[in-house]
């Protein structure tokens, strides 16, 4: 039921009629139902993803992470299906809501990761912490393979 939009000189123009009170009330009820479904998904996803990650840590080389990333693909598919904010397409987005390059949490994590890598390369605190974690994981992995 999302509105269709046409493009005229890079501005979105709604092709569907104006939003009525009843359409708005319907969209609010649908959003609340979608938020509830999304919350239930999140409650289930936390322990399932941790379990999958724990199993994935001890896969043989070349298969590391498979279970964890399969859980992520399933969660992404579920979110696409829910399409929580799909009804927002009834009107063109305001300027502040248009996604800009470099404004995602993934971009922020990448910048933080780069900072940690630089510290690691200098032999800082993260280098010794990484080595300790690697030794612990290698020891557990070796015990599991016996």
Structure described in brief:
The protein is mainly alpha-helical. It has 4 helices and 2 strands. α1 (21-57) runs antiparallel to α2 (66-82) and α3 (105-121) packs across α4.
Question: Can you offer a commentary on this structure?
Answer:
The chain is mainly alpha-helical. The chain is 62% helix and 5% strand. The protein contains 4 helices and 2 strands. A two-stranded antiparallel sheet has the order 1-2. Strand 1 and strand 2 form a beta hairpin. Helix 3 crosses helix 4.
* Largest beta sheet: strand ordering: 1-2
Helical amount: 55-70%
Mean pLDDT: 81
Pick out the low-confidence regions. Answer: 1-11
| Radius of gyration based on Cα positions | 23 Å
Major sheet: 2 strands, antiparallel
Order of helices and strands: EEHHHH
| Tally of individual helices | 4
List the helices and strands and how they pair.
Layout: E1 5-8, E2 11-14, H1 21-57, H2 66-82, H3 105-121, H4 125-144
Antiparallel strand pairs: 1-2
Helix pairs in contact: 1-2, 3-4
Question: What attributes characterize this protein structure?
Answer:
single chain; 146 residues; mainly alpha; two-stranded antiparallel ribbon; 4 helices; elongated; disordered N terminus
């Amino acid at each position: 039921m999302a509105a269709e939009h046409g493009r005229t000189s890079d501005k979105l123009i709604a092709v569907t009629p104006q939003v009525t009170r009843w359409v708005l009330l319907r969209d609010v009820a649908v959003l609340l139902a979608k938020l509830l479904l999304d919350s239930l998904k999140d409650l289930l996803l936390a322990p399932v993803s941790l379990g999958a990650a724990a199993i994935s840590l001890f896969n043989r080389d070349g298969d590391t992470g498979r279970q964890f990333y399969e859980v992520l693909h399933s969660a992404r598919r579920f979110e696409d299906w829910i399409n929580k904010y799909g009804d927002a397409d009834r009107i063109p987005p305001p300027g502040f809501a248009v996604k800009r390059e470099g404004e995602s949490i993934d971009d922020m994590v990448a910048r933080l990761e780069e900072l940690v890598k630089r510290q690691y390369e200098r032999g800082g605190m993260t280098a010794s912490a990484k080595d300790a974690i690697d030794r612990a994981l290698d020891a557990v992995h070796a015990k599991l393979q016996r």
